[in-house]
Amino acid sequence: MTPLASVLAAGGGKSLLLVIIGVVIVAVLLFLFWRGRRNVEERPSPPQEPQPRSGSWEEPDSRDNDQ
């Protein structure tokens, strides 16, 4: 075993603390992801019928010129 590996293996108390902190962070991130997905699913869907000015990339005068 290399000296660095033996030093890293000797710090068992700190590594356990870091593992617990890592698990808590992952759990919080999973909870926030789940909550965000639920919020997105609860949003009302956009209306299906055409909306006024749905072709808003056209200039208002361009429709008058076509007629």
Relevant terms:
67 residues, 3 helices, mainly alpha
Task: Explain what this protein looks like in three dimensions.
This protein is mainly α and 67 residues long. The protein contains 3 helices and no strands. The longest helix is centred in the middle third of the chain and has 31 residues, at 12-42. 0% of the residues are buried.
Coarse structural class: mainly alpha
Gross geometry: elongated
The helix fraction, in percent, is 55-70%
N-to-C CA distance: 85 Å
Average predicted local confidence, pLDDT: 76
The helix/strand series, from N terminus to C terminus, equals HHH
Helical segment tally?
Answer: 3
Give the topology.
Layout: H1 3-10, H2 12-42, H3 60-66
Entry summary:
The chain has 67 residues and is mainly alpha-helical. It is built from three helices and no strands.
